[in-house]
Amino acid sequence: MSDYFVIGKIVNTQGIKGEVRVLPTTDDINRFKKLKEVYISKRSGMDLYEIESTRFHKQFVLLKFKGIDTMNDAELIKNTEIKISKDLAIPCEEDEYYIGDLYGMEVFTDEGENIGTIEDIIFTGANDVYLVKKDDSQILIPAIKQCILNVDVKEKTMKVHLLEGLR
After folding, report:
1. What is the pTM (predicted TM-score) of this model?
2. How far is CA 126 from CA 28, 130, 158, in A?
């Protein structure tokens, strides 16, 4: 897993004083109020930016960074990701996992059969669904307690029970 988590994407500028409009990708948008600095991931690498102010507007977080004082400055960081270091991440509750930990995880049935690795996670309104691929076959497994029996992040393995009709 990466040493950084993506918590938002800068989707546009806001006004003429260098503010940016961020689409948050975190469950708790209030975390932005607690942050003093973040990394902005560009093609050339990641740079650390100090946050001057944070406010909210509709579904967006509006951020003002130190040294970004005009709309032209803000344009330079448009369409980039905002990341934080792993040590600033909100701790997971029991039976919760960071999404990044699940990608590439080997999935086994409760009978010991290797059915593949998690290639994608589909976010639905009711529950997440894991896309598990092996060779040319794939299976969709809902992330519900009846199916997900055990997740071992250290070993990168998941044990599942396949309900009738999932194969």
Report:
1. 0.66
2. 19, 13, 21
